[in-house]
Amino acid sequence: MEKGIGIAGIAGRMGTLLAEEVRAAGATLVGGIDRPDATVAGGGLFPDIAALAAAAAVVMDFTHASTVQAHARALAQAGTAWVLGTTGLSAEDQAAVAEAATRIAVVQAPNFSPGVNLVLALAERMAAALPAGQYDAEIVEMHHRQKVDAPSGTALGLGHAVARGRGVALEAVKESGRDGHCGARRTGGIGFAALRGGQVVGEHTLLFAAANEHISITHRAFDRRVFATGAVRAALWTHGRPPGLYSMMDVLGMAPPRG
Ligand SMILES: NC(=O)C1=CN([C@@H]2O[C@H](COP(=O)(O)OP(=O)(O)OC[C@H]3O[C@@H](n4cnc5c(N)ncnc54)[C@H](OP(=O)(O)O)[C@@H]3O)[C@@H](O)[C@H]2O)C=CC1
Ligand SMILES: O=C(O)C1=N[C@H](C(=O)O)C[C@H](O)C1
């Protein structure tokens, strides 16, 4: 990779670790963008995403959903690959990601840990095997008090995996933020609950609750570094990759072959 790796959000919780992991992988860190007065450990602080995109072969992006549409345009224009970890995207943001992916390689994942991606694959298989009329699917997540979006991107990813397994669209069956007289649970609904507190790195449980048994699968991240090493792996994987919207499953070799 001639130009090296850039980081959007380089001074943030993830950005700081990403910079360390780029160096640990023996790759070149060109620098990143963040708030103008940010201190960056290694590489330069670029004035904006266009300048970073011009200098880097790939940008790892862990910022805020409000940046996504501008970053999509700048990276597509520069022909720079994009590893997108930011969560909380709107439908319009997601459309901008898909548009960029017609021109550049984009690896988008709500969670870059190998363990969560295995859980996502298992979730789809479990949902396909357990009748929706008997097994109520509930997704519970907990994160640190600073997290700004809910449910987490990973929780939504789990919801989509369950919905795929059941052959339905998540939007049609999602039950989020129950409060007050919300009525009885809908058959086939996929429920979400988000807890926030302390410095929890990220915990996700998918529960299938039937009348006579419960099955649950839980992932706990103890250190953000697990996301950072996965994202650097994804960034290196983009080298020479044709335009397209890829997932961490593609990077891990767990995705079904593309038709
Ligand atoms: N996919 C995955 O595996 C993971 C995804 N995430 C996601 O990554 C994102 C970031 O998380 P985290 O690192 O904890 O958050 P932080 O708030 O610690 O870091 C984000 C950084 O981006 C900066 N930033 C925000 N907007 C801009 C902008 N317009 N231009 C330049 N810099 C900007 C912030 O600056 P300022 O503080 O001034 O706003 C901050 O320094 C979240 O969406 C989170 O959900 C997190 C962990 C793993
Ligand atoms: O904001 C975080 O911290 C995390 N965000 C991601 C998400 O929304 O799923 C991944 C991880 O759980 C940490």
UniProtKB/TrEMBL annotation:
NADP(+) binds at residue 35. Keywords: Amino-acid biosynthesis, Cytoplasm, Diaminopimelate biosynthesis, Lysine biosynthesis, NAD, NADP, Oxidoreductase. Pathway: Amino-acid biosynthesis; L-lysine biosynthesis via DAP pathway; (S)-tetrahydrodipicolinate from L-aspartate: step 4/4. Residues 115-252 form the Dihydrodipicolinate reductase C-terminal domain. (S)-2,3,4,5-tetrahydrodipicolinate binds at residues 144, 153-154. Its main location: cytoplasm. The keyword Transport does not apply. It comes from the Bacteria. One of its GO terms (biological process) is lysine biosynthetic process via diaminopimelate. Homotetramer. HAMAP family: DapB. This is 4-hydroxy-tetrahydrodipicolinate reductase. It comes from Rhodovastum atsumiense.
